[in-house]
Every structure is written in structure tokens, then in C-alpha cells.
Amino acid sequence: NTKAFIFDLDGVIVDTAKYHYLAWQKIATELNIEFTHEHNELLKGVSRVRSLDIILELGKVEASQEDKNRWLVQKNEDYLSYLVDMDASEILPGVFPILKFLKENNQPIALGSASKNARPILEKTGLLSYFDAIVDGNDVTNAKPDPEVFLMAAKLLNIKPEDSIVFEDSVAGVQAANIGNMTSVGIGEANTLHEAKYIFKDFTAIDTNFIEEIIRK
Ligand code: BG6
Ligand code: MG
Predict the structure, then answer these.
(1) 14 lines ligand 1 (CB under 6 A)
(2) What is the mean pLDDT of residues 188-208?
């Protein structure tokens, strides 16, 4: 049996969600907008442009397109500064063994990320060669919870959506997988990700029996 295993990037493969948060927080602070960890959950899985709009809405701030563009550039420069020294040590615990297991079992693997910085991150962490397909923020027009990113990934792998498994740490991403008729696996807090079919606190909690069972189904 062959299934498609589709991984989100930020917060699933690498712990970059914290860097996105820090970079947005800096902008929010400059604009005098309160921006908590809970607010940040709304931004996970969401595109850069939409994230800024959400922050501005939180602070009820109206801004010109010029200002917005400046903040978007500033946010990304700040974010990228956190990634300069990134290497394989930033791969989240348990991820590498699962990727290896999937490869050994000839299961196709794809990336399904909203980020436009996905490829350099996979390169820096040495994971690029594990992915048979990469769909990222440069490829899609509709952001999660629209399933476009995952549907495109499954299509590239030549696997039907119902035979696809999506690993996601964001609410929007879990919803996208569900709407796309895929099996959603939430990585994180059960309270936050309750819409997922399965939930694990991280990849160390996923054993190979679980993966084998999914392949067999
Ligand atoms: C998602 C992150 O993976 O990518 C979001 O969860 C981020 O926090 C989005 O805003 C876009 O990323 P980037 O790297 O293109 O700004
Ligand atoms: Mg994520």
C-alpha cells in the first residue's frame, strides 16, 4: 500500500514557529498592539500578508499599502536573521526517525507549507532530499484553511486525497487537511487541535506501529 505523507514545515519539522512569533511581536510592539501567544495561534499556518492584516485588525490599526509593505519586508528580514545559523540540530525531536522510516518503506513524502522560506530551511537542515514534492507559499494562491497546498502536494505525488496523511501544528492547517478529505494528524496541544483525526504532542509520541497501521489501511 502507498500513502502520501504530507508535512507542514513551521512548527512541525522545525521549531521556527517561535521565530515567526518573535518577528511579529517586534512589529506589534512598535505599533503598540498587544500580541500574546494566544493571538499567535491565529497566525500559525497563515500567509505572511494575511498575518500582518490579522495583527493590524487586533490593534484596530489602519495602514497604507506602503507601510504594510515596509513591515512585511522588516518582518521577513528579522525572521531570516534567526535562521542564519540554522542546521540539523533545529529539526524537532522525533521527526527524522519518522522521515527515515517512511523512506525505508517507500512511502512518498511531500512538504505542504505556507512559507516562502521553505526551501532554504530544508536545505539548511539537510532534509531536502527526503521530499519527493515540495509545495510552499510560492506555489499557492489560497491560504490554509483552503486545502489547495495539500491537494497540490498529493497530486504531485500521484496519490488520492483520501490516501493522504497531513501532519500539522496549526488550526488552519488541520482544517485544510479535513476540508481536502485527507487524514489530519495534529502535532501539539489537544485543546487547540481538537479538530484533527489524531493528535500527538510531538513526533516522539508517534511510533512506527502507528505509521505502519496507516500505511496498511
Ligand atoms: C507558515 C507559518 O508556515 O508560514 C506562518 O506557520 C508564516 O507563521 C507562514 O507566517 C508564511 O511564512 P513566510 O516564511 O513566507 O513568512
Ligand atoms: Mg505550522
Answers:
(1) no
(2) 97
Coil, helix or strand for 209?
A: helix
Cβ(186)–Cβ(25) below 8 Å? no
Residues in Cβ contact with 168 at an 8 Å cutoff, skipping those fewer than 6 apart? 8, 12, 45, 174, 176, 177, 184, 185, 186, 187, 193, 196
What is the spatial distance between Cα 217 and Cα 215, in angstroms, rounded to a whole number?
A: 6
Q: Is the CB of 113 within 6 Å of ligand 1?
A: yes
**pTM for this structure?**
0.95
State the ipTM, two decimals: 0.98
Torsion sign across C-alpha atoms 26, 69, 79, 93: positive
Atom of ligand 1 nearest to the CA of 9: 3
Residue at 117: amino acid letter: N
Is 139 among the residues known to form the active site? no
